């Protein structure tokens, strides 16, 4: 564990806490893409199939449980909680995420480290995570106005990706046999998707104004 | 370290 990975995990956790807090405090999920949240729940469930077969560390297992539970809690809130559910704007959240799931699964069947059940699902989760933010970014683009907490949620998610890239560079330099091409290439693609958002986030931060994305 | 079984990253 290096400082970059820890910082990445912490900003990832922070992003989820910010989102849960926003939904809990305002009893509203306006501006939040349910499709992105469902994709993340699938990502964690598919990736952490090794929770009961490979023990890495208490930290590792604990975080896996936290990520699975929190992503399911968010989806549950958006689908079942009577007040939160009413604030969900279906008309804005129109991204066809089933295509992403199908495409990522096909890619995982072709590109994986080993052709085993766990490894194919692991690769699938990596590919799906890389594109899972797309429905959220499209929703923000469509609604134009981004409230502070939703902006911070996406900001922390992007920061998490940035730290993971630093972590891979660090590991590549310090661990002689560290090569994890599937995760690294997908990770770079994922981080690149945030570039546009970050640009506008920093401009609004610099000008001390509300975050607005161009139509 | 990298020979450890399983994926150590989240």
TrEMBL record, chain A:
Location within or outside the cell: Endoplasmic reticulum membrane
Top-rank taxon, per record: Eukaryota
Alphabetized PROSITE patterns for the sequence: ER_LUMEN_RECEPTOR_1 (PS00951), ER_LUMEN_RECEPTOR_2 (PS00952)
GO MF assignments: ER retention sequence binding
Record-level GO cellular component terms: endoplasmic reticulum membrane
InterPro entries: ER_ret_rcpt
Pfam families documented for this protein: ER_lumen_recept (PF00810)
Topology versus the membrane: Multi-pass membrane protein
Parts of the chain that traverse the membrane: 58-77, 98-115, 121-141, 153-173, 179-202
Alphabetical GO biological process terms: protein retention in ER lumen; protein transport; vesicle-mediated transport
Keywords: Endoplasmic reticulum, ER-Golgi transport, Membrane, Protein transport, Receptor, Transmembrane, Transmembrane helix, Transport
Family per record: Belongs to the ERD2 family.
Protein name in the entry: ER lumen protein-retaining receptor
Organism: Trifolium subterraneum (Subterranean clover)
């Amino acid at each position: 564990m290096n400082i970059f990975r820890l910082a990445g995990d912490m900003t990832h956790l922070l992003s989820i806490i910010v989102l849960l807090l926003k939904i809990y405090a305002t009893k509203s999920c306006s501006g939040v893409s349910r499709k992105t949240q469902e994709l993340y729940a699938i990502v964690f469930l598919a990736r952490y199939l090794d929770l009961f077969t490979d023990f890495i560390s208490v930290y590792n297992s604990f975080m896996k449980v936290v990520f699975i539970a929190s992503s399911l809690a968010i989806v549950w809130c958006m689908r079942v909680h009577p007040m939160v559910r009413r604030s969900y704007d279906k008309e804005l959240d129109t991204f066809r995420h089933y295509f992403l799931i199908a495409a990522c699964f096909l890619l995982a069947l072709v590109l994986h480290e080993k052709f085993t059940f766990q490894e194919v699902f692991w690769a699938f989760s990596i590919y799906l995570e890389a594109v899972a933010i797309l429905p959220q970014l499209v929703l923000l683009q469509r609604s134009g106005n981004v409230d502070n907490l939703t902006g911070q949620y996406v900001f922390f998610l992007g920061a998490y990706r940035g730290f993971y890239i630093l972590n891979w560079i660090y590991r590549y330099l310090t661990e002689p046999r560290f090569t994890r091409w599937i995760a690294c290439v997908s990770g770079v693609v994922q981080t690149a998707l945030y570039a546009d958002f970050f640009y506008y986030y920093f401009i609004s931060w610099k000008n001390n104004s509300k975050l607005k994305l161009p139509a | 370290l990298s020979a450890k079984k399983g994926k150590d990253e989240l």
